[in-house]
User: Which sequence fits this backbone?
């Protein structure tokens, strides 16, 4: 009982030491490289190691040092009794080696196919509506079936190996017991030993071989845990713990981008190439350009989600990587293109899950995003539970609450990636007001837009195409160029700068 308690606690203390690091790696890895599987392997690996450490497997190691002692006593009884025990031990060790060789591959295959199966299941759960609406359920079910079959197959192979070897070792142990009795009986008949030796040697040899048997029984778990441990080690080695740089003063003056280029994690091509510009407190920048021109990628660079391959992004002269991530987060508001909220209350989401958030700050952010009234109309106001990834809200409500989250704490740099894609006229008006008031407070606002209305509140425009900046300047100047040279209806409507107008500006700039 004590052993198993101690082991459980050893497992728990390993978990305690590593779980934060593993979580940290889990959330940083997708920003550095393409993640295979569902991205949760590290958590499963840690569980696997903890599970093994807490189980019976390691106790085999505790007993192993006694084995030579028992064998030595067998030799003291009689030379041939000792030899029988050693022969038995060698046979069992041979089985252990076979177990090692034959479980390694299926265990690895089981881990991999298990991850592949999970990816498919997760994607299906997320897209349950699509599967239902277009009757894709059965087809994806078939895919799932085959992924599952692979997994079960690998599981079965490793179980078969472990089970088979377990049975062989059991047979061997019984044979050994009989052999021991036979040898003892023979020695008694030959009058080389007393009858008591038969019983004593039978008991001792089974004690001596118990740890080997235990090891064989737990070999599968041991191999799995060892593979997990190696994967974890590789992963943690690839992403060393972050240093904690010294705190820098709150940024208040400039955002400068100096020849920044970026490659998406795991990608080959530059999504942003050599972009430079600088903004000052109070500036509002609109980024326009066709789809896949690198607007969202540039936004990720600005907020430090991706690190630039070349060049720098600086806040008040300090490159983003010089900031401690949590400290930097306080100065940054980011509204991603695909908004997802976390399960929790509206207030918690706006406060970015800060545990001691002041209600005043939450309400100030909600007011700045003009969603205070909208929130009060929800069933429980700020305490409304919004469900897993914000399901309980409409897309427009989600976007506006995410805007409040971006404005929480009055950050210096606010980057909004297509903030109006789901908004109605009232929402767009609220957004324009929010941008203008943030600028009036001396903040920098960057807005990526396909639709014209979001550009109403900016004073500068950056045009992107194929990852490069094609033009940067005051909004009116950029638009008047377009009006003069291209008589595009949206561009000519003055100040209204949609995707079509963006493309038109590109033509001018290229000309
Ligand atoms: N995580 C990623 N992994 C691989 N490639 C990516 C990733 N994110 C973006 N890209 C690639 O980078 C390029 C630019 O994408 P980006 O999302 O920045 O375009 P965008 O201008 O925001 O387009 P849209 O207007 O459609 O949102 C695209 O070719 C895209 O395939
Ligand atoms: Mg985008």
Assistant:
């Amino acid at each position: 009982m004590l052993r198993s308690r101690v082991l459980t606690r050893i497992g728990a203390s390993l978990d305690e030491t590593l779980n934060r690091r593993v979580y940290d790696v889990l959330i940083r890895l997708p920003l550095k490289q393409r993640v295979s599987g569902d991205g949760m392997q590290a958590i499963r690996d840690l569980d696997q190691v903890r599970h093994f450490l807490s189980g019976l497997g390691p106790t085999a190691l505790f007993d192993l040092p006694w084995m030579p002692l028992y064998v030595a006593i067998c030799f003291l009884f009689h030379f041939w009794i000792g030899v029988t025990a050693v022969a038995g031990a060698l046979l069992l060790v041979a089985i252990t080696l076979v177990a090692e060789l034959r479980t390694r591959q299926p265990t690895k295959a089981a881990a991999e196919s298990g991850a592949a199966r999970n990816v498919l299941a997760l994607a299906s759960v997320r897209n349950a509506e699509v599967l239902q609406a277009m009757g894709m359920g059965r087809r994806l079910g078939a895919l799932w079936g085959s992924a599952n079959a692979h997994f079960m197959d690998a599981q079965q192979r490793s179980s078969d190996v472990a089970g088979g070897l377990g049975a062989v070792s059991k047979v061997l142990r019984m044979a050994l017991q009989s052999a021991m009795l036979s040898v003892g009986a023979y020695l008694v008949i030959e009058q080389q030993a007393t009858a008591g030796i038969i019983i004593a040697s039978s008991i001792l040899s089974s004690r001596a071989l118990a740890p080997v048997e235990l090891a064989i029984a737990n070999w599968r778990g041991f191999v799995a845990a060892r593979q997990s441990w190696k994967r974890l080690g590789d992963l943690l080695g690839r992403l060393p713990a972050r240093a904690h740089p010294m705190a820098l003063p709150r940024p208040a003056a400039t955002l400068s981008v100096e020849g920044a280029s970026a490659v998406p994690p795991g990608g080959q091509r530059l999504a942003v190439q050599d972009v430079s510009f600088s903004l000052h407190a109070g500036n509002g920048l609109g980024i326009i350009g066709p789809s896949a021109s690198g607007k969202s990628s540039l936004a990720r660079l600005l907020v430090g989600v991706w690190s630039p391959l070349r060049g720098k992004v600086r806040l008040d002269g300090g490159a983003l990587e010089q900031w401690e991530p949590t400290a930097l987060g306080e100065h940054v508001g980011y509204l991603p293109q695909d908004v997802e909220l976390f399960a929790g209350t509206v207030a918690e989401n706006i406060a970015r899950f800060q545990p001691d958030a002041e209600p005043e700050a939450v309400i100030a952010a909600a007011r700045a995003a003009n969603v205070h009234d909208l929130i009060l109309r929800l069933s429980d106001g700020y305490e409304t539970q919004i469900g897993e990834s914000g399901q309980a809200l409409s897309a427009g409500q989600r976007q506006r609450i995410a805007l409040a989250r971006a404005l929480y704490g009055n950050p210096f740099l606010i980057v909004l990636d297509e903030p109006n894609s789901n908004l109605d006229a009232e929402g767009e008006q609220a957004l324009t007001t929010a941008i203008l008031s943030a600028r009036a407070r001396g903040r920098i606002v960057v807005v990526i837009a396909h639709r014209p209305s979001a550009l109403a509140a900016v004073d500068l425009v950056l045009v992107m195409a194929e990852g490069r900046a094609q033009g940067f300047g005051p909004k009116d100047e950029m638009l008047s160029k377009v009006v003069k040279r291209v008589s595009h209806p949206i561009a000519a409507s003055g100040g209204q700068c949609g995707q079509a107008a963006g493309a038109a500006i590109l033509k001018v700039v290229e000309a």
Remarks:
- Residues 264-265, 267, 271, 289, 291-297, 337 surround adenosine-5'-triphosphate (ligand 1) (CB under 6 Å).
- Residues 485-502 have pLDDT under 50 and may be disordered.
- The chain is about 60% helix and 10% strand.
